[in-house]
């Protein structure tokens, strides 16, 4: 344990070139023993960290819901490797490795914020049999924002 409610575990993900990259995944866990009420997995935006959920976590913990706040590679406290692209392929592997390593099997609710909403949607789809809910806070748009749309379109 690094500090109160922060834990780490070694995981590896494959980058876009197929290279296996070892990382130290640091996550917040309000109840490492689990909860019969369920587990909420917080996926932050970019930039961001588990601290993006600092006002939500105590409310969930108070009613017996386990909260796991994942820190993506290079953000928060998790390690980083320059060979990463930080794309959905890598981010989704990272989330799934944490879920699998913690042996999370039921009553999962994915809570995504901003850039993390894409990954929350994908994690819920990947874990349909385990998922009870999906919450999207300030989700990304489904169309290209006019501010970044090329002028020729």
User: Which regions contain 5 or more consecutive residues with pLDDT less than 50?
Assistant: none
Q: Which CATH class is shown?
A: Alpha Beta
Q: Shape, please?
A: globular
CATH topology: Rossmann fold
| Major sheet: arrangement of strands | 1-2-4-3-5-6
Q: SS-based structural class?
A: alpha/beta
Radius of gyration equals 16 Å
* Largest sheet entry: 6 strands, mixed
CATH 2nd-level architecture: 3-Layer(aba) Sandwich
What is the topology?
Elements (H helix, E strand, L loop, with lengths): L5 E9 L5 E10 L9 E5 L13 H6 L3 E5 L17 H14 L6 E6 L2 H11 L4 E7 L16
Helix pairs in contact: 2-3
Organism: Panagrolaimus davidi
Pfam families: DUF1057 (PF06342)
InterPro entries: AB_hydrolase_fold, DUF1057
Give a brief rundown of this model.
The protein has helices at residues 57-62, 88-101, 116-126, and strands spanning 6-14, 20-29, 39-43, 66-70, 108-113, 131-137.
Written description of the protein model:
It comes from Panagrolaimus davidi. The protein is of the alpha/beta class and 153 residues long. It has one domain: 3-Layer(aba) Sandwich (Rossmann fold), CATH 3.40.50. The chain contains three helices and six strands. Strands 1-2-4-3-5-6 form a six-stranded mixed sheet. β5, α3 and β6 form a beta-alpha-beta unit. α2 crosses α3. It starts with 5 loop residues before the first strand and ends in a 16-residue tail after the last strand.
